[in-house]
Structure formats: structure tokens, C-alpha cells
Amino acid sequence: MVYAPITKLDNFTGEKNDTQIWLNNIEKAITANGWNDARAMQAIPYFLKNIIDSCNNNSINRLINTFTTMKQRETETVTTNLGHFHRNLHQIQAIDTNYFTVPQILNQFIHGLHSSILQHVCLLHPGTLQDAVTCARDFESAELEANHAQVINLVINGSSELDSKLKKFSKSIKKRLEGYLADNHAIYQSPQ
Q1: Which of 98, 103, 158, 165 has the most CB atoms at less than 10 Å from its CB?
Q2: In angstroms, rounded to a whole number, what is the distance separating the alpha carbons of residues 106 and 132?
Q3: How would you write the pLDDT of the chain (192 residues) with one tens digit per residue?
């Protein structure tokens, strides 16, 4: 049952100097209207609606901003980036399932990829998010394999270019290649 207040209570706006005045007005309204604690607890959330709506809108805007500006880091794999992408998307969809259309989601994923992968995926014009993920992973895998082959060739030939070649690779590829070389160093050492 909703009781019409005898003393009108304004909505809380969240303004800096408004808090204490509003709290004082709540106490006056509770007394003037003869509300017990239970009734007051039913009425107060209604007068907080504006501030709650404002907080929700700010949260949604922050989530959307994070989602629409996220980019794959140089050291991140496509799979790791996809995990961040899905987590951010699900947070937005938990609030509003229709905020982004399927083409917008696909476009956001593609344009959030690292630039070298982005160019490759755009050339293939994937029609679905799964197609875009597959294209990105395939390119990442092929790029890694090509880099492995170049480094192995330099090791086999005992090239002094190995250090400079490793420095040119991105941090993640360099780290993977160094691990690969450490595991297989004895196999590729050239005979003296």
C-alpha cells in the first residue's frame, strides 16, 4: 500500500551541498507524516530514484566507453583479447541486451585487433564474429610460424643477426621464440 506523504519530500539530486539538507528534510517528513521505520524504508528509495538512475547511467557509459575503445595489446594473443572482449560485452548486455547490434559487435571486435592482424582480417571480410576470430587466430598462428622459421634459420646458420632479429619481434612473439629456442637449442646448434 502506498501512502501519500503529508509533507512533500523532494528527490535527492546528489549535489554536493544537497546531502545534509535532504537528510534533515527526510527526518522532518518522517515525523510530520507519522511514518514508522518500516514505512520510511519503503518511501525513501522512491526519493533516491534520480540518483540511482544517474549512477546506473554513469556505469553503463563507463562500460560502453571501455568496450568501444578497447584494443588488443601488443603482448596479447587473439584468444586473450577475445576473453576481454566477451567479458566487457557481457557486462553491457547484462544491463541492455539490445545495446549493440550483431554487425556493431563484429565491427568492434575487428577494429580492436592489433594493426597487423586487423589489416589481414579486414581483407577477408568475415561475416560473423566466429569467422573474424578464426581469421585472426589463423593469421596470428601463421605469423608466429613464419617468425619461428626465420629464427631457426638464423640459429642453424649461426647468424650474428639473431639478436637484432629477435629485438624486432613484438614482446609476445619474442618471448615465445626464446622459449622455443631454449627448449630446442641442442637440436639446432651447428657443428663446429
Answers
A1: 165
A2: 8
A3: 445 555 555 665 556 566 777 778 778 878 888 888 888 777 777 766 666 666 667 777 888 888 888 898 877 888 888 999 999 898 888 877 888 899 999 999 999 998 889 999 999 999 999 999 999 999 988 887 777 677 676 666 666 666 666 666 655 565 555 554 554 554 444 444
pTM, two decimal places: 0.55
Q: Which residues, at least 6 apart from 95, have a Cβ–Cβ distance to it below 8 Å?
A: 56, 59, 60, 63
What cell numbers appear for 8 in the block? Answer: 512533500
Distance CA 140, CA 154 (A): 21
- Residue in the block written with cell 634459420: 153
Long-range interactions of 185-189: CB distance < 8 A, separation 24+: 188/152, 188/155, 188/156, 189/155
Grid cell, residue 154, equals: 638464423
Q: What is the largest CA-CA distance in the chain?
A: 99
Number of residues that make up the chain: 192
Residue 174 and residue 162: Cα distance in Å, rounded? 11
Contacts of 153 (CB under 8 A, 6+ apart): 159
